[in-house]
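Suppose you are handed a protein chain with no further information: no name, no annotation, nothing but its sequence. What can you learn? This example shows the usual starting point.
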Amino acid sequence: MISTQELFRLIRGPIAVAEPLGPYTGLRIGGTADFFIKPRDRGDLCRAFGYFKGRGFPFFILGRGSRLLVHEGGFRGTVIATHFLDRVVIDGDMVEADAGVSLSTLAERTSRASLDGIGNFGAGAGTVGGALCRIDGTPGRMSGECLEWVDVLRNGRVRRLKNGELQAGISSRGIGADVILGAGFRLRRFSRRNRAHHAVNADDGHQADQAETGRPTALSGRVFMDPPSMPGVAGVRAGELLDACGLRGERRGGASFSESESNRIVNHGGATSEDVLELVSLAREAVQRRFGVDLELGLVLVGYNKSGNHGQFS
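A reasonable first move is to predict its three-dimensional structure. Written in structure tokens, the prediction is:
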């Protein structure tokens, strides 16, 4: 049993009841969550996590939501958002960033400090925490290039994982079940005269689609993970496979694969989660039929059970 009075005593950040989730996702699709909490800082997040974990109440942690697909029936549980975990500290070539810092903000701040190297971190993610939860690319290269340590909440205690622990613990699926609080990076310094050549563009794709349509659009993060290297073929991206199957711009209901990058889905207005899942199914079948590749979903389904039907989040 969840007591709202107890929650308000425990959590310093704002707490909302029956909060619509659509506005917090890239696709702008989705029903309400029972509770929506924005912890003020790391300590607040740890208290919220401990409260719901201890009571066995369903919850998940939200960053920018670029990869979330939320069912219109909503989520019967709590969303803990990292919007206020936005601290960035730069000391020489060392950078510390909270989990809720957007990668575009981090790129901008480090570029202004004449630091380079963050552009290879977390392709396709929206925030530092999201990048570490779901890493695209080669984990050894990513961690060896810039990631020095990660602060996590593990078994009720804050731990700093670094060096060998990170190399052994990071996989293509992230760092596991730990709650990510922040990370530290060691970057390269470059000349201020060459700053323009090192500018890093936010990996959200919104500007490209806006230019095509002449109006703002709701756009997902990358729909599918890039597949492992195939025999004799290295570095194939999921978007290239979708293009080869003629899926760029393919539409179902109010949703379509993007005209500017096929591994993203656009909500043209009024799209439903069913429209999006139809596109996902179409793409998987086409790629499997032509290339024998099973595409792994990069979107996170909220309000769906493991069979893909609406049910309790798992």
